[in-house]
Amino acid sequence: MFRFKKPGNMKLFFFILNKTEKLDAVLTELARIDISGATVLDSMGMARLLSEEHDEGEIPFLGSLRAFLNPEREKSKVIFAVIQERKIPEAVIAIESVVGDLSQENTGVVFSVPIDFTKGLRKIGE
After folding, report:
1. Strand, coil or helix: what is 37?
2. Is the confidence at residue 116, as pLDDT, over 90?
3. What does DSSP assign to residue 20?
């Protein structure tokens, strides 16, 4: 019989990295504070995708949108890991030690969401 067991104070922690050249350094810092098992995905923002797939005649706001896009950054990386809630401040400090203050432009975004069920986790960043 399957029994539902809620994990204690676990979060799915996300970091959207704009400076993709800093990926290895960010992962190294996370590993240094015992956050392991992260997954990394390639990503592209909605505005970038729309501007590449459509012209200004199809979507009127694209002309003004192109002025705000960073032409050097075509892709981003999304790093996510299951971690203990108490590790979130430490993870943010580790990330900011590499990319700089996340409140500054072109660094990235970090957020977490609660986890209400897990099965198959081997080692969780604690």
Report:
1. coil
2. no
3. G
